[in-house]
Amino acid sequence: MPQLNILRYPDPRLHTVAKPVAEVDERLRRLADDMLETMYAADGVGLAATQVDVHVRLLVMDTSAERDQPQVLINPEITARSAEMIRGDEGCLSVPTIYDEVERHARVSVRALGRDGQPFEFEAEGLAAVCVQHEMDHLLGKVFVEYLSLLKRERIKIKMIKKTRDELGKR
Ligand code: K2U
Ligand code: ZN
User: Fold this and answer.
1) Which of 131, 133, 142, when mutated, tests ligand 1's pocket best, judged by the most ligand atoms within 8 Å of its CB?
2) CA 84 to CA 47: how far, in whole Å?
3) ∠ CA 121-127-129 to the nearest 5 degrees?
4) Is 2 helix (H, G, I), strand (E, B) or coil?
5) pTM for the complete prediction?
6) Mean pLDDT, to the nearest integer, of 125-142?
């Protein structure tokens, strides 16, 4: 299975709002599998279809310590959010080397279709809760740096443009 190219901030395609999945078919399952391979190869714990320039409501994640519990969420919805919030450092595969503090709901209830097309629900807390919220932001065209100050966001934008230019120069 091929590893997919991950869009790099500030690529405008990262701000596309994903459309609901109409049918869970073989093509979508292949995309989910390729996203999981791409996520594991990049040491990520989550990846949204938006990040691989496919604008459908699909995300994958694996927050297990053993990296052996892949989850596929199709048309995911957050059905409940805790009042309690947590602040923690986040990173993003589309914004490499940048980590900064973001506030998220400590627990969320999630409903989605699985890789088999069947509906399922679960409660997430800790890293899983943060990851789900981070990935679902991606499906709405939102990158975590948008929670930071304008000054920080501009500095990150300049740094990412330079990093991408340097990498292209080395090819
Ligand atoms: O969406 C992505 O770019 C994947 C993120 C998801 C994520 C961000 C913040 C907190 C949890 C998950 C990557 O996994 S960033 C790399 C990473 C790995 C472990 C913990 C935090 C960040
Ligand atoms: Zn991200």
Assistant:
1) 131
2) 25
3) 35
4) coil
5) 0.96
6) 98
Residue 170 has pLDDT above 90, yes or no: no
Distance CA(5)–CA(163), nearest Å, equals 16
Residue from 26, 66, 84, 135 carrying the catalytic annotation: 135
C-alpha–C-alpha distance, residues 15 and 153, integer Å: 15
> Residue 15's Cα: distance from chain center in Å?
13
Is there a catalytic annotation at residue 135?
Answer: yes
Is the CB of residue 95 less than 8 Å from the CB of residue 160? yes
Report whether residue 18 contacts ligand 1, using a CB cutoff of 6 Å: no
Q: What are phi and psi of 7, to 5 degrees?
A: -60, 145
Measured in angstroms, how far is the CA atom of residue 134 from the centroid of ligand 2?
6
Q: What is the mean pLDDT of the chain?
A: 97
Residues 30-70: tens digit of each pLDDT: 999 999 999 999 999 999 999 999 999 999 999 999 999 99
